[in-house]
């Protein structure tokens, strides 16, 4: 059988919905299109999950290398962990535990067995104007994004700082921001047009524009860290229909 290594996506509802064609561009769909006939994109997004729940189910999610080989593992949690402690959704995870959970996911023996290229994605910003009641704060998601970056640095894992990528589109400038000032997405400021273009419903899930930023940032990271793993640099699984030399080699290998 033709064997495809996996581009494995492990996250919450933002990951789960990233194959959806309801709006148009989706992250998982775009990634699979880019790696078609080279890697299989596996979406294991679990709506509503925080890192505590993710860690519990990880043994049931990550297959042993003998069953499927994971070449890339995307870990994308934090949007739910960053919920306010008093929220009705009961998804909040304290910041220190969030960091520990990320470390335990990344270093889990079932993950380590694959020796995969790990990409840690920070939680994105939120738009408080779209929550009723507000159960996530813009200032808190900043802290959780920073915590994810810290985990990546500590473990030597590559990070897509999606919070920063989104915020750059709002016009927010980190070097000009003062700690006591509100940030885009906060109720203390007028609703930001860029966030409205990136996220829908409760100011959390992505429009196509948001997924496109995630896709671009992921490909950018692969270009910088693992250029040999870009789609155009990987061989196709099974010969091209028009390549007689490849067909001959493949037929010999299957005898």
UniProtKB/TrEMBL annotation:
The keyword Transmembrane helix does not apply. InterPro entries: Iah1-like, SGNH_hydro, SGNH_hydro_sf. Residues 9-212 form the SGNH hydrolase-type esterase domain. It comes from the Eukaryota. It comes from Lojkania enalia. Keywords: Hydrolase. GO terms for molecular function: hydrolase activity. This is SGNH hydrolase.
């Amino acid at each position: 059988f033709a064997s495809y290594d996996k581009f494995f996506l492990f996250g919450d509802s933002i990951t789960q919905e990233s194959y959806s064609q309801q709006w148009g561009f989706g992250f998982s769909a775009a990634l699979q299109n880019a790696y078609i006939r080279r890697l299989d994109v596996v979406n294991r997004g679990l709506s509503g999950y925080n890192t505590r729940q993710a860690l519990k189910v990880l043994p049931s999610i990550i297959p042993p290398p003998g069953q499927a080989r994971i070449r890339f593992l995307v870990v994308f949690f934090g949007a739910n962990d960053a919920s306010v402690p008093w929220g009705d959704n009961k998804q909040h995870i304290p910041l220190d535990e969030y960091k520990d959970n990320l470390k335990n996911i990344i270093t889990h023996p079932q993950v380590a067995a694959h020796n995969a290229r790990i990409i840690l994605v920070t939680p994105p910003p939120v738009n408080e104007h779209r929550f009723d009641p507000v159960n996530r704060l813009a200032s808190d998601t900043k802290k959780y994004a920073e915590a994810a970056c810290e985990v990546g640095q500590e473990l030597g894992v590559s990070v897509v700082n999606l919070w920063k990528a989104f915020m750059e589109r709002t016009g927010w400038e980190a070097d000009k921001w003062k700690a006591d000032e509100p940030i885009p997405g906060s109720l203390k400021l007028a609703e930001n047009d860029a966030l409205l273009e990136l996220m829908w419903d409760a100011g959390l899930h992505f429009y196509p524009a948001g997924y496109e930023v995630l896709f671009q940032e992921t490909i950018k990271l692969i270009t910088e860290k693992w250029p040999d793993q870009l789609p155009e640099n990987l061989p196709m699984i099974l010969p091209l229909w028009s390549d007689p030399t490849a067909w001959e080699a493949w037929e010999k290998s299957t005898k």
